[in-house]
């Protein structure tokens, strides 16, 4: 009975919540050019900020929960459903689907916290701190290059690489998920500006070619 009530409460909250870029949903759909470049929001990802010495015992315990800790700048580790992004030698961002969150029946945050225990370090639930934009298509890299100083050529920025940078002067974590697909993780307060900036950068690909 209590479990049923809790589940109904969770579903009720899911129905009324709004993502940081939800007001741009229609614009993202109309601004995307199928087969060329597509932009959408992937909201409500489960995210945990982790600070731990990866060489320590607690680091090993956290690595076992998360599927490994990346060892160097740009590296991403994890499992099929969990990605661990390197932010600094002892700082990581753990990203997983929304159903991994403890409030929705998952146990990722709790498991990471338990793995750390009372040892030096930190596990913080950052799920509401950022949103996720997913940019894909043959022109996705060209769109990003209009406002990103990183070398995004495939020889330098390969799939499975994540770096902290700026896109359109907005701080983001940029993850390359495939040959022509990227995820951008801006802070929630910058979602509107970055979403509109990306749409503007995509606009030329929706225009007819000049003969």
Description:
The chain has 2 domains: 21-43 and 131-206, Probable tRNA modification gtpase trme, domain 1 (Gyrase A, domain 2), CATH 3.30.1360.120; 44-128, Alpha-Beta Plaits (2-Layer Sandwich), CATH 3.30.70.1520. The protein is built from 6 helices and 10 strands. The protein has helices spanning 2-16, 25-31, 57-66, 108-116, 140-145, 191-202; strands at 38-41, 46-51, 76-78, 83-88, 91-96, 122-125, 133-136, 161-167, 170-178, 181-186. The strands form 2 sheets. Strands 1-7-10-9-8 form a 5-stranded antiparallel sheet.
Order of helices and strands: HHEEHEEEHEEHEEEH
| CATH class division of the largest domain | Alpha Beta
Low-confidence parts lasting 5 or more residues at pLDDT below 50?
Answer: none
State the domain count. 2
How do the strands of the widest beta sheet line up side by side? 1-7-10-9-8
Biggest sheet character? 5 strands, antiparallel
Q: What structural class do the secondary elements suggest?
A: alpha+beta
What is the number of helical segments per DSSP (H or I, 4+ residues)? Answer: 6
Determine the CATH superfamily of the largest domain.
Answer: Probable tRNA modification gtpase trme, domain 1
The CATH topology assignment of the largest domain is Gyrase A, domain 2
By DSSP, the count of extended strands is 10
């Amino acid at each position: 009975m209590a479990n049923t009530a809790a589940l109904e409460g969770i579903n009720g909250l899911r129905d009324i919540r709004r993502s940081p870029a939800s007001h741009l949903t229609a614009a993202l759909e109309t601004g995307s050019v199928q087969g060329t470049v597509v932009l959408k929001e992937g909201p409500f990802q489960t995210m945990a900020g982790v600070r731990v010495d990866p060489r320590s015992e607690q680091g090993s315990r956290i690595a076992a929960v998360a599927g490994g800790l990346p060892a160097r700048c740009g590296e991403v580790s994890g499992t099929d459903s969990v990605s661990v992004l390197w932010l600094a030698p002892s700082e990581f961002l753990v990203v997983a689907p929304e159903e991994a969150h403890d409030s929705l029946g998952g146990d990722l945050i709790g498991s990471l916290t338990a793995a750390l225990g009372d040892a030096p370090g930190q596990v913080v639930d950052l799920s509401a701190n950022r949103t996720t934009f997913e940019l894909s298509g043959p022109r996705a890299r060209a769109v990003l290059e209009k406002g990103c100083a990183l070398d995004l050529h495939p020889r330098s920025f390969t799939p499975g690489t994540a770096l902290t940078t700026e896109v359109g002067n907005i701080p983001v974590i940029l993850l390359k998920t495939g040959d022509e697909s990227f995820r951008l993780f801006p802070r929630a307060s910058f979602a509107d500006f970055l979403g509109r900036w990306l749409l503007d950068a995509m606009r030329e690909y929706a225009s007819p070619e000049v003969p």
